[in-house]
């Protein structure tokens, strides 16, 4: 019997790696998509390759798109990345938000799913321990599911891919514990918005603060290399 297929958006960070492991545990043949979009922390693409290999995905595609030309984010253009914030998960949307990034990524994933007959699309968004990005919220995932139903061939035939965000309501510590239970090698992942070419983290940006806090709260040693 042919295995069911899934598309997993794989960034090289903890959350997407866990999504890949969940898909593999559920018996999917996984196609991973990673985006090189002009991000300053481009080392995450190299780390995504390592994570994809460790997960044993069937296929891994690096998609190059130019979000730097769009502007609107310090991750793709000039400006300072917020650092040393006590509570990155509160307050206004930070300048690290990349305009419509997850909308674009999911559109690509839906195209791959529609063409390949994949039944599920996994995305590692999280709306709890995160910086209030609008495209990481449950209502965004619900809206994109309606797009999948209304705007794809599979959807028109009554078999739209299910957009899965299994981590959306979990704390970072819970995600880290889940990663360990699934055997994910978190030392391969990178989360830092300012990681250097060797993948060493700054330890100060919002993403680093949340990552460090997650390991601490989970009671698990942090394997991250910090500068």
If you had to describe this structure to a student in words, what would you say it looks like?
This protein is α/β, with parallel strands linked by helices. It has one domain (5-218): HUPs (Rossmann fold, 3-Layer(aba) Sandwich), CATH 3.40.50. Helices cover 36% and strands 11% of the residues. It contains 7 helices and 5 strands; from the N terminus they run βαβαβαβααβαα. It has helices at residues 14-25, 43-55, 101-116, 138-151, 153-156, 172-181, 206-218, and strands spanning 5-9, 29-36, 59-64, 120-122, 162-164. It has a 5-stranded parallel beta sheet, with helices on both faces. Helix 1 links the parallel strand 1 (5-9) and strand 2 (29-36). Helix 1 packs parallel to helix 2 (43-55), helix 1 crosses helix 6 and helix 6 crosses helix 7. The longest helix is centred in the middle third of the chain and has 16 residues, at 101-116. The protein is globular, with a radius of gyration of 17 Å.
Low-confidence regions: none
CATH class: Alpha Beta
Structural class: alpha/beta
Q: How many extended strands? A: 5
Strand order of the largest sheet: 3-2-1-4-5
Could you say what the CATH architecture is? 3-Layer(aba) Sandwich
Distance between the termini: 49 Å
Number of domains: 1
- Fraction in beta strands: 5-15%
Q: Output the radius of gyration.
A: 17 Å
Task: Indicate the mean pLDDT.
Answer: 96
CATH fold node name: Rossmann fold
Element-level helix/strand string: EHEHEHEHHEHH
Number of helices: 7
